[in-house]
User: What shape does this take?
Amino acid sequence: MNRLYPRCALATVVAAASFQLVSGALQPAPKPAKALPRPFNLAALNTKFDEDDPFVSRDGTRLLYTSNSSKHFTLMASQQRNRLQFFPSSEKWPAGEELEGQNAEGDNRSPFLTPDNHDLYYAEKIAVKAPAGEAQAPANYDIAHAIKLVKPTQFTGPTYVQSVCTAEDELHPWLTDDGLELYFSRKTRDGWRVFVARRAPATKKEPKGAFGEPVLVEDFPAGFHHATLSRDKRVVYLQGPLDKNRWGLFRAKRQSVKDPWGKPQPLEGLDHPEAPTGDTSPCLSREGSKLYFSSDRPGGKGGRDLWVVELRWFD
Assistant: This one.
C-alpha cells in the first residue's frame, strides 16, 4: 500500500538534502559542478588548412566561411540538404565550393549574407596599383558589397561601402535585421574596435539610403570586436582578448536598443587552454540558439577549424 508523505514531512526531506554532516555538524552541501560546454567540430567541412569566418544563412541551409587552402583566403559556401536542426553533433556540413565574383588576387574574409540571400557583404584585401612615380600603398581590408545572380554561389563583382572604408583595416560586417545598421571591426591605434554605420529606412518613394559615417561603439573596450547580434539587437557576441595573447568569446547585453551595452562577459567554460590562439570569429545562428566560431583547439583537423556550440550551456 502506497502512502503519501505529509507536505511538512516532504519539505523536511528536501531541506535535509541541502545539507551534509561535516565533523558532527550540519553544513550546506556543495553545489554540483556545472557541466562544461560541449562544442562540436564540423568535421565534414574542415581540412588541414584554416577554416574561419563562419556565417549561417537565415534559413539555416547555407554556411559561408573562408579557407586558405589556395594562395589567398577565399569565400566558400557549404550547402546542407538533410539538416537536423536540434542536434549540432549531427550537422553534416559538406565541403564548400568557392563563391563566384570575388577577386582572386587578394584575401576575401568575413562574409555576411542578408536574410533574403540577395546581398553579400564581406571584407576584401587587395593592393591597388599606384600611378607611375607614386609610392605603392600597402594593401588593407575594405568592406565590399555584392549581389546574387542566378546560382546560390554566384555574385556580382564587389563595390565598396565607401563611407566605412579607410586606409585602416575594416573587417567583420554584420547588418542588423532591419538592414539599417552596419556593424564592423576597424583596426585602430588602440587595437581592434567595433564601429557602426547607419542609414535611413526605405519610404514609398525612396529605397534605403546609403550608410553614413560610422561611429565608434564606446561601450566595448579596445580589443573587443567581430560583433554578431541577436535579431532584437539586445544581445551581442564578440571576440575579445585573453591572457597570454590569446582570444576568447564574450557576450554583452542591454535592456533596450536605446540603452548602452553592458560589460562583455566571457562564455564560461568554453575557452580551451590548449588552443594556441583560442576562439575567434563568432557567428550567432539566426534563430539564436547556437554560436558558430573558429578555433585551433585540440580535436580538429589542423590549423583553424569551424565549431558550433549550443547557447543553452551559458544560460
In short: The mean pLDDT is 88. The first helix runs from residue 7 to 16.
